[in-house]
Structures are given as C-alpha cells and as structure tokens.
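Need the bound structure for zinc ion, inputs here:
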Amino acid sequence: MQNEIELRIRNEISEKPIFLISRLKDSEPTTLYFNNKDTSWVDTILQSITAEYDTEENMDEELKASVTVKRDSNSEFGEYLIVTGSVEGQYMASCVKCLDDSPQSFSTEFQGVYIHSRYENDPEYEEVDDVFIEDKVLDLYFHERGKADLSEALTEAAVLAINPYPKCKEECKGLCGQCGENKNHNNCGHH
Ligand SMILES: [Zn+2]
Ligand SMILES: [Zn+2]
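Answer from helper R.:
Posting the output first, comments after.
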C-alpha cells in the first residue's frame, strides 16, 4: 500500500519530473513507480528513444521504472538525494541490417545522487560523472536548490541500456548489395 507521502509525491511529479527533496524525511527511503501510460514525462523519454525509427508495425510500447529516493546529508555535500532504481522497456525499432521492424527490449538498474548545483561549476567536479557517497559509487546529478529532476537519471539509465544497433535477429542476413532484396525473406541468387 502506498503511504501518504508517496501519493503526494506521485501527484506532484506526474506532469513534471521535478522532485522537491524537502518532501522527504531524512534517511527514510520512499519508492515510486512510473510508467509511460500514466506519467507524461516518462512517455517523453520513450518517445525520444523511438523517434529515430520510422516503423510501421505496432506493438505495445512501454517504459516502466521503479525509483527509490532517499534524502540525506553530510558535511561534504550538504543535503543530497540518493536515487536507486530499475527501468525496463519495450519498443519497435528498425533492424540496422535489413530495416525490418523488430521488437526490442531492455532492462537495467541504476544508482545516482543529486547534490547541490553549486558543485556543478566547481572545478573539482567539472570532469566528474560519479561520486563516492555512503560507501557506494553513484552517478552524479545536481539539484537546483532542493529540486531534483528525476528524468535525468531515468533517461540516462534508459539510453545507456538500449541497443544502439538493433537487429531483427542475431543472424540477420541483411539486404542484397546488388538488388536490395531482403535476404531473410527471399533468396535472390546474388552473392
Ligand atoms: Zn534484420
Ligand atoms: Zn539480390
């Protein structure tokens, strides 16, 4: 059962992924669930993944995530937000070899931390994309005066997990270099 704080946060960020850290009590993890069907900014992430593919066949495209958020603080970073979660999706892409529509899926886990944006311009953190906090190496993000954009961590996790060279099947035969025939479907006799 969702508790009151989870419900309130969910309502707050269903339209915009901006999460107000002060909504959480210190060190009390809260888990939030999202999918593209009821959260518009999650759908935006899915659309940006599929935008480069011009597919005709339809499938039930989906992006689902669970994110556990925990607020904490230490003397080095001040107040920060730890996010750990998983994201999985399925979508239609064009095979890089034969251009046929082909269903793709992925599933991944991520862990990150949002620290104050004043560190963003700190030379010490300029070239850094992860940081060691609470005995873990976490991907580094920045919150703007207590506002963390959860779509940053989710988008990065999804983009790193998808296959940049989608194929219809591992042994796809591709298109014929001479006549353009899809060799998976027809043997045109060329080599
Ligand atoms: Zn193919
Ligand atoms: Zn041919």
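Comments: Residues 4-161 form one domain. The pocket of zinc ion (ligand 2) is lined by residues 176, 178-179, 181, 188, 190 (CB under 6 Å).
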